[in-house]
Amino acid sequence: MVDNRYATALVIACVLSILATVYLSVSVGTQHWYQYSSPTVRGEANVSELRSLYEEFMDGEFDEKTYSDTLFRLNGTVGLWWRCVSVPVNAQWSKEPGSKIMRECRSFSLLEQFTPKYKEPGNHNSGEDMVRTYLWRCQFLLPLVSLGLVVLAGLIGFCACLCRSLSPTLGIGVLHLLAGLCTLATVCCYLAGMDLLHRVSMLPDRVDGSLGWSLYLALISSPLHMMAAALLVWAARSHSQNYYRMTAYRVA
């Protein structure tokens, strides 16, 4: 029989775990990790240049410099799996008040996720930038590891419920702690990678960058997983100590 305190802790931990997993899943699947704000399109030459960038972004081969420049100039957003730009619906590409704006997105393929980054984006002769390359790969792999750990913890917890046992609770708590650390590491890798990108690819004049809500969702999910882990570990340890005390009392 489980004490009410332990049962309450387990229920709260389950709720926190579900919330954290939903937040992380939404974060991974959306593109608003980082967003750029660019000035209004003015002049025919500027319009032609931006239309050329947009066409290359949508139909051209994958190139970090090309898609980065397009994101800078067309109010782009970029996430772990998606990169998007905002373009006017009308053929003249004018951003007059009231004009409609549509968002066009392209996904990063699995091969593109593992494409090396170069010291000078777009220049393959400049040499591979190992730090940026592995930061990008880590920010892609770590959230998948985090979700995998939570799924594994959920399966173990389901089996424990069927067996009416609290024994695996400590292990489930450790899995949640590792998931929270992986999520936190994802955010850190992403921020470090974007900072290094902006050092080698300077933002154009009057273009501002800011963090998006998808990144904040991932940042929120990390402490939620850790709080769930703390509750699970506390319940497991307290129940174990109480069980041994009761056993010793009965023996005595």
Report on the architecture of this protein:
Mean pLDDT is 83; it is low at 248-252. Helix 1 (4-29) runs antiparallel to helix 7, helix 5 (130-163) runs antiparallel to helix 6 (169-200) and helix 6 runs antiparallel to helix 7. Helices cover 64% and strands 10% of the residues. The chain has 252 residues and is an alpha+beta fold. It has a 5-stranded antiparallel β-sheet with strand order 4-3-2-1-5. The relative contact order is 0.18.
Classify the oligomer.
Answer: single chain
Strand % is 5-15%
Number of helices: 7
Spatial order of strands in the largest sheet: 4-3-2-1-5
| Secondary structure tally: strands | 5
String of helices and strands: HEHHEEEHHHEH
Give the overall silhouette.
Answer: elongated
- Most strands sheet: 5 strands, antiparallel
Amount of helix: 55-70%
Average pLDDT over all residues: 83
Q: Give me the Rg, rounded.
A: 24 Å
Spatial gap, N to C terminus: 21 Å
Poorly predicted runs of 5 or more residues? 248-252
Q: Find the structural class using helix and strand composition.
A: alpha+beta
Membrane topology: Multi-pass membrane protein
Organism: Gouania willdenowi
Transmembrane segments: 7-26, 140-163, 170-193, 213-236
Pfam family, one: Claudin_2
